[in-house]
Amino acid sequence: MKTDFWALTDVGKVRPNNEDCFTVCAELGLFIVADGMGGHHGGAVASEFACNGVANYIWERKALLDDLVAEPTPLARRKVLRLLNEAIRFANDQIAERAEFEPKLEGMGTTVVVALTAGDRLFLAHIGDSRAYLIRNHDVLTLTEDHSLVFELIRQGRLTRQAAARFPMKNVVTRALGVRGVVEADVLEMPLLPGDRIIICSDGLHSYLDDDLLNKIITDQNLQNTVERLLKFALNSGGSDNITVLGIDVSAISADADTVNLKNNRIRAIPLFSELEFSEFLRLISACEHRLLNPGDELFTVGEIADGMYAIVSGAVEIRNGDKPGQRFGTGTYFGELSLFEERPRLVSAVAVERTELFVLTKKLFDSIANQYPAVSTKLLRQLVLILAKRLRDAYDEKVILKDMLEVQAKEAPVIISSEMLEEDDDDDDD
C-alpha cells in the first residue's frame, strides 16, 4: 500500500498551551492523534505518553503486521485489532502511573485516535472525542463515535443532532486514557481503496464542522492544502481549543481494487443492512466474526447450538442432512437469520464446497447492538421483519399454488372401481 500524509497542530486563539499531540510512523503505516486534558502541563504530558506508548508498543510487535501483509487472513486481522487495543491499554497504564508519581499531574488524561494502514486495510481504534473521517467518492463518512455525554444521549435517542449543538455539556468526555483499570477502545477494520482520504482530528476542528461543510473544504485534491485549509477554518471560526489535523491519502493498494470493491458491494447489498448508514454498516461488519474455510471444512454440525446469521463474501456452502446434499448458498447469499432470535440445536450440517470467506453476525453481537445502539437495532429489526414477512408470503403463495394443482389433478384423475363393486352392480341389475 502507498500512502501520503500531512499533519499540522496549533495552540488556537484561547488556550495558553498546546495539549494536542500527533505521531506518524510511516514505516509501520501508523498515525496517531491525541488531545490532552488536565490543565497546566498535564494534558500535554498525557497526550505525549499516549502517542509514544502506542507507537512503541506496536513497533515492538511489528512481526504481527508482517504476518498480516504476508497472509491477510481473518485471524491475522483480528490479531492486529487486538494489538491496537493492547497498545492503548499499555499507554493508559503509563499515564496513570506517571500521575501517581507526580501529584501535580493528577487528573491528567487524553483522547486518542490510532489509525494503522496494513495489508490493504485500515485498522482504527479510538477513545474519547477526537475523530476519524473517511472521504470516498466525495462522500464524508464519520468512522468514530464520540465517547461523550452528548453523543451518548444521541445514541440512546434522547437528544437530536440538531439539539446537540446547543447542549450545555457537549464537551464532557465519558471515556479517556489516564484512568486506573481497564480501558476499552472502539475498534474497526475496513478495506481501503485508491483515492481514499482519511482525516484524523481533535475536537478543536470538528466542533466547528458538519459533514457538508467538511466536504466543501476538502474539495482540493492536494492533501497539504486540505490540511492547511481545515486548520485555517478552525482558527477563523474562533480557535477556542487546540487544533490538530492529520490527513492520509491512499494512492495505491497491492490488491485488485475492482475485486475489493466487488466484495464490499456484495456485503452491502445484503437486505438486512440496507437501512444502515455506511459508517454504521462498517462498525457492524467489523464487529462480526470473519471466517475462512477450505473445501470440506464444516461450518457447523448437527446438534450444535445455532449461533447466528451467516453471509458469504466468496465461495459456497452446502447444507447437508446426513449424507444427502441440500440447498447450496453461494457468493452474496446469507442464511440463519432466525438464529438471531432463538438458540436451538442444528438439525443439519453445513460444509464449504469451495474456498469460502464469510462473516457471522452472532446472536450475542445482535443482542449487544440492541442494548447499546437502539437506533441501529431498530433498523436491523425492521429489515428482519420485512425479510421474514416476504418468506411467509412466498410460502403461503406456494401452498395455494400446490393446493390448486392437487385439486386439478384430483378432478382429472380416472375413477377406479374395484371388482367387488362391479359384482354388486351386476347383482342389482339382476334384481
Layout of strands and helices, then pairs:
Blueprint: E1 2-10, E2 20-25, E3 30-37, H1 42-59, H2 62-70, H3 74-101, E4 109-118, E5 121-127, E6 131-136, E7 139-142, H4 149-155, H5 161-164, E8 186-191, E9 197-201, H6 203-206, H7 211-217, H8 223-236, E10 243-252, H9 257-268, H10 278-287, E11 289-293, E12 298-300, E13 308-314, E14 316-321, E15 324-330, E16 334-335, E17 349-352, E18 356-362, H11 363-372, H12 374-412, H13 419-430
Overview of the molecule:
The protein is built from 13 helices and 18 strands. With 431 residues, it is α+β, with helices and mostly antiparallel strands. It has two domains: 2-255, PPM-type phosphatase domain (Phosphatase 2c, domain 1), CATH 3.60.40; 256-410, Sandwich (Jelly Rolls), CATH 2.60.120.10. A hairpin with a 2-residue loop joins strand 14 (316-321) and strand 15 (324-330). Helix 2 (62-70) runs antiparallel to helix 3. The longest helix has 39 residues, at 374-412.
